[in-house]
Amino acid sequence: MPIYEYQCQDCDHQLEKLQKMSDAPLSDCPQCEAPSLVKKVSAAGFRLKGTGWYETDFKTKKPAKEPKKAESKPTNSSS
Fold first, then answer.
1. Which of 13, 25, 51, 61 has its Cα between 20 and 30 A from that of 4?
2. In this predicted model, what pLDDT tens digit does every residue of 41-78 receive, in sequence order?
3. Cα(3)–Cα(6) distance, rounded to whole angstroms?
4. What CATH architecture is 1-41?
């Protein structure tokens, strides 16, 4: 879930809120209680965590060898 930054246009109070992307934006300022909160444009911060990432899982592993196919011996068709 992303962290959104808000600023009140009336009292300049700033806050951060952890919200789902599908949540409605906040509108009421918790400090002055005016409906004048505006979502600020800010850089997104995230952290790659867990397995499945190139640096932790795939960088040092060597590709798997293909299994050898059994060679078929030519049949001798002499009469």
1. 51
2. 887 666 666 666 666 666 665 666 666 666 666 666 55
3. 10
4. Single Sheet (2.20)
pLDDT above 80 for 3: yes
List helix spans (H) across the chain. Answer: none
Contact 37, 28 (CB under 8 A): yes
List of residues 6+ apart from 62 with CB closer than 8 A: none
Number of helices (H), then strands (E), in the chain? 0, 3
- The predicted structure's pLDDT at residue 2: 84
Q: Give the C-alpha separation, 28 to 4, whole Å.
A: 15
Q: Where in the chain are the domains?
A: 1-41
Q: Is the pTM of this model over 0.70?
A: no
